[in-house]
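User: Okay, second chain of the day. Same drill as before: sequence in, structure tokens out.
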Amino acid sequence: MCVLPCLLPRSSSFQRDGFRSGTARLPVSSSSRMALCALRTRFLKSSSHCGARGRLLQRQSSGCVYSSIHGFDLAEIREKLLAFPGGSVDLLKQDSGIAVLTINNPSRMNAFSGSMMVDLEEQVSQLENWTDGKGLIVQGAAETFCSGSDLNAVRAISNPKDGMKMCMFMQNALTRLLRLPLISVALVEGRALGGGAELTTACDFRLMASDSVIQFVHKHMGLVPGWGGTARLVHIVGSQNAIKLLGGALKVDPRLGLQIGLADGVLEAPQAEEGAGSPLQQAENWLSHYIKGPAPVIQAVKKVVVSGRELPLSEALRTEKDVFGTVWGGPANLQALASKSKHK
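Assistant: Same drill. Structure tokens below.
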């Protein structure tokens, strides 16, 4: 908890031997000045720590974007969403340190039912506490990524009040997904439409199958993205491209995806070349290049990138310093120093 003491304001009114109150001068002894300076130094150190690390940790907690102070009741919206069952969001954590999160509702092109939204939030909670994790692949079942939200659930909560609660719930879940201390990639097969397109932006990278499409179709539904997709899209492709994708509801194929930076790679068709492997195998191989090394180091990499992306520079620098302190002199650092592996 940061306490903000009203001590020694840094202004011209502060004098070497006291400070001015109206026309009177209040004397301050040498020992008092020393004590006040010590308190001020301690406060500045404390406030800088609370400012950067505290805010980042708060944002990465389960209430990272919205909480009760925004009129958001997590238990209430979970109960409402669970009234619309169907499909699942499945999580497989592997010994390699790569987890696979599968959006599984093939009969509806992997659209999110209400219960699947709750599943997603619960799986993200598991991943936040996975100490051995390094990477995450998000995919859809049956060679289709995700077609957004299930219209049955959408129609049932089409009133503005419930719609806003669903919006806040999914913004929370997808923001936490992006802030995971894991390097994540969306494996896009088939179509990623609407909310499915937004889901791809909640990963660090996107790999597209040769015949896949990402399309922000919200305009056709009389909407704009509500799961945080616009804010993330602007970071990825820039504001002008974001306007084109949203305003034109453009179909982004792998060629256009690579051109504007929405796609980070294109998968080979398994039959096109011997040994290409399944799309999931290709995604795991691609991701493995970025997660070599101990889990604490990979997680530290992701944490400093998140702070650099989301915090003002001064706070990002202090957070980087704090995260640096968790790995400096750690097992991986000492082993690297002993083996002189820096330039390998």
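Residues 1-28, 35-63 have pLDDT under 50 and may be disordered.

User: Thanks, on to the next one.
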